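Researcher: Structure for this, please.
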Amino acid sequence: MLGLLEKDLRLTLTRKQTLLIFLVAALVMGMTMDGSFLVGYLTMLATITAVSTISYDEFDNGMAFLMTLPTSRKTYVLKQYLFSLLLAAAAWCVGLVLYGVMSAVRHSAAAPGDELPMLLAILPVLYLSAAVMIPLQLKFGSEKSRIVLFVLFGVAAILFVGVRNSFGGAVPSPDGLIMALSGLSPAVVLLSLTAVCALLALASYLCSVRIMEKKEF
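Model: Predicted structure, token format:
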């Protein structure tokens, strides 16, 4: 497991110039936009970067070679979810520090501590995007998975609009849902959100294990 994590970290560090460009872009946007955007932007980039290591493993029959090492397919899948979480958490921490520094430089009245519940919610929500992308990438590959992802989002949007039109007011609108959640304690909302995301990530992990076990190299 540690060897696989080190491999992914080294693969990520080979793109130092790209990562530096992303960081500079985040700093520029962080100076002109809301600080929470900076945290979410870096976390999302880290999540996409972590998932993209699967493409490197699949390049030039690399996955077939990895499976000859003393590791299992289940361990490989577990590593992918763990690496995505670690990289996203690291980027979240970096974003939080940059947010604090920029708030001090700009003498902003808003501070990271004031928005901490919302900032904490960014991590499980964006990690859920990794839980969606990992099984798709394992199943369809890098290029096809993007197409499938767009199709899924399109179908979900169409279904949501169709259900709302069919049942009228029975389906709450996003604004109504936000108003309802605003009346709850931030800790309750954060814990509930984290629990839901954790369950969905677990379901995604089990799905990815099944995909990986059926995959032929």
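Researcher: Any notable elements?
Model: Confidence is low (pLDDT under 50) at residues 173-179. Residues 116-167 form the longest helix (52 residues).
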